[in-house]
Every structure is written in C-alpha cells, then in structure tokens.
Amino acid sequence: MESFELVIFDCDGVLVDSERIANEVFAEILQDSCGLTLNQATMFELFVGRSAKQCIETVTDLLGHPPPADIQHRYEQEINTALRTSVTAVEGIRDVLEGLQLPYCVASGGSYAKMHTTLGKTGLLPFLEDRLFSTSDVKQGKPHPDIFLHAAKSMGVTDPAKCLVIEDSAPGVQGGIEAGMTVFGYAECMNPHTLRQAGAHLVFDDMRQLLRLNRGQWPDGLSIEKQAKELTEELTEELTEKRT
C-alpha cells in the first residue's frame, strides 16, 4: 500500500452530516420559489460538492431561465440557522480524528465561517482548528485541484502522491485525482457508482475503517449488502430510462 504522509478530509458530508440538511433546505426553497420538486437522491446528484455559482447555473438549466434573484440569500440565511441547531458529526469520525496516527487537515469548498459553525457545533473544531483550508484561499474550487495542492503544501507535504483525500462528492473526487492524490470516496449518503465514475480509488461507507491506515492497510470497501442495493438501484434506473 502507498505510504501516506497526509490525509485530507472534505468537511461537509465527511466530517459533519450537513449535506442532508443543506439539501432539505435547498429543496424546500426550490419548491417554494421555483416550483421545482426534487427528491433527496436527485438533490445529492445535482448539488453536492458544487459551488453556489454552479448550483444556480444548474437551477437555471432546470428552469430554462434564471431563478429569483434572492434565492441564494434566502438559502444562506436558512441553512445557517439549520446548521447551528441541527448539524451532527458523521458517525465514527470522532474516533478517527482521535485515533488516526497520520497527520490530517481539511480542504473544503465551504467558507471558514461555515466550517467554524459546523465543526464547532459538533465538537470537532479542537481537532482541526489550525488545519482548515477553504477554496476561498485559491483561484479555482473543486473539481479543480487547487485546494488540495494548497492544503498539502501548507501542511509541508510536497509530493501529492503521498496524500490521501477523503471525499463524498464527484467534484471533490475529481479534484483530488487531478491533484495526483489517492482518493477514497465516502458513500454513506452519496451514490457509490457516482464516486467510482469520478475516479475514486476506493469507495467505503464506514468511517472507522480509516483507522486501518494505522496498520498500513486500506479500509474495507462497501459491504455486500450495500453493493447489492447499489446494483438493484442502477438496474431500476436503467429499466426506467428504457421505458421512458
């Protein structure tokens, strides 16, 4: 196995269980302001890992015209309130941060303010406070490699091949791959097939499996049950597309 010198975590959906909250809030706004009704799976596929600008472009494509001008401001207000009251840590991540023997940091598409809100609410901030990096620090966000290369350099690692990225979105996986790093896709919420298509070297769904890195081992991949469920969902989607 590759000997890693640094583990780079995404924040939303990897450290904190914020993606579900964000998608629920955004889905309600889209339905109320735009008349769009999107289920949770579609919200994850379309919006997770995307910047605010990219999300607005996607909504514009769906509508065929720009959404109401206040939609982003409304989302920012409502998501901040929701995260301050409801966000929780991803299951098992505290054990990982306490027990992982490799250096680690965070490379997030979110702002520093958002990271301090979510990591503070979940009690994870003390593990990470001096090791946070945001795409606001770099020219281009994910799926470009800038944030990962910036984080590695800031942490004193000059060889990208010595870095392991933990991501839960296709843009994040693509950015890590483009940076020349090994990328594990965390699929507790995201469709595993999406992460594999983006190029993830391994897809897993149990965060505590990362502690196997202490023994020079990769985590176990998806459970047999989850692989079977994934295959069933893919076949169902294919049949639905053929019928339509």
Task: List its traits.
244 residues, alpha/beta, Rossmann fold, DNA polymerase, domain 1, 11 helices
Structure description:
The protein has 244 residues and is an alpha/beta fold. It has two domains: 6-17 and 87-232, 3-Layer(aba) Sandwich (Rossmann fold); 19-86, DNA polymerase, domain 1 (Orthogonal Bundle). It is built from eleven helices and six strands. It has helices at 19-34, 40-47, 52-63, 71-86, 93-99, 112-122, 125-128, 146-154, 170-178, 192-198, 224-243; strands at residues 6-9, 104-108, 132-134, 163-167, 182-186, 202-204. It has a six-stranded parallel beta sheet, covered by helices on one side. Strand 5 (182-186), helix 10 (192-198) and strand 6 (202-204) form a beta-alpha-beta unit. The N and C termini lie far apart (45 Å).
Largest sheet: 6 strands, parallel
Q: Give the structural class.
A: alpha/beta
CATH topology of the largest domain: Rossmann fold
Radius of gyration based on Cα positions: 18 Å
Instruction: Estimate the global geometry from the Cα principal axes.
Output: globular
Query: Helical proportion?
Result: 40-55%
Averaged pLDDT, please?
87
The parts where pLDDT drops under 50 for at least 5 residues are none
Q: Give helix and strand order, one letter per element, not per position.
A: EHHHHHEHHEHEHEHEH
Number of helices: 11
Span of the ends, CA to CA: 45 Å
Strand order of the largest sheet: 3-2-1-4-5-6
- In the CATH scheme, the class of the largest domain would be Alpha Beta
Q: Strand fraction band?
A: 5-15%
Number of strands: 6
